Every structure is written in structure tokens, then in C-alpha cells.
Amino acid sequence: MTTDNKGEVILRVVPRITDINSNGHIFGGWVLSQMDVAGGIVAGRIAQGPVATVAIESMKFISPILLGDIISLYAYEERRGRTSVGIRVNVTATRGRSERKIDVTSGLFTFVALDDHHRPRPLPA
């Protein structure tokens, strides 16, 4: 996977017509779910096992996503606690034939590492 100043590219997806809201833009909930998936992948690698989303902080929509955009989700570890890890997820849209890159949104997702009983466990060193 490639990297840049936004983190590692974790997912690339193309929204479908069913993902459009009443304004003709891609529904924010769809974007949020893709971000949670991307953040969970990175958090799971760090935790070396299952994780659960416990918080979403500082979410900000910068620009709408349009039908036909290719969405790239970048992620990296921003902070770490004893049982939790904060993953920054940045979303960029590649638009049109010119393949113009547009920053769409960013958010900080906090995940907690889980043990076999679905309780918090310490992160590996």
C-alpha cells in the first residue's frame, strides 16, 4: 500500500447510487461506516486482535462526495493508551477525468483492544 502525509492507504471504494442522500451527495453515514472499517483495520493490526470502536472525535466534513468519485481512506496511529488506540482517518475523493484530489473529511476514531470475553485488554508493547 502507498503512503503519503495522510497516512497509509487502507481502503479505496466507489460509492453506489444507493449511497446518495436527498441533496445528491453521498450520505454522511456511508462515509462514516467506511472510515470505521479503515480505522478498525489499523487498530486491529496494532492490537494484534479484535477491537471495538468506543468514540469518534473531531469529525469534520470538508467537501461533499459525488457519485462517480473514487474514495481513498488513509489512516495512522495518532495516540495510544493502555487499552485503546486513536486512529486518524482521512478521506480523499478522486474526481473526474482530471483525477483531481479533493479532501473530503477527517476524524479521530478511538478503538479498545478486546480479550476473549469482549472486555478491554492491554495493547501489546
From TrEMBL:
Keywords tagged on the record: Hydrolase
Any Pfam family hit: 4HBT
Domain of life: Bacteria
Record family assignment: Belongs to the acyl coenzyme A hydrolase family.
GO biological process: acyl-CoA metabolic process; fatty acid catabolic process
Record-given protein name: Acyl-CoA hydrolase
Any one Gene Ontology cellular component term annotated for this protein: cytosol
Keyword Metal-binding: no
A GO MF label: long-chain fatty acyl-CoA hydrolase activity
Gene3D superfamilies: Hotdog Thioesterase
Residue stretches making up the HotDog ACOT-type domain: 5-117
InterPro entries the UniProt entry points to: Cytosol_ACT, HOTDOG_ACOT, HotDog_dom_sf, Thioestr_dom
PANTHER family named in the record: ACYL COENZYME A THIOESTER HYDROLASE (PTHR11049), ACYL-COA THIOESTER HYDROLASE YCIA (PTHR11049:SF5)
Claim: DNA-binding is one of the keywords in the record: no
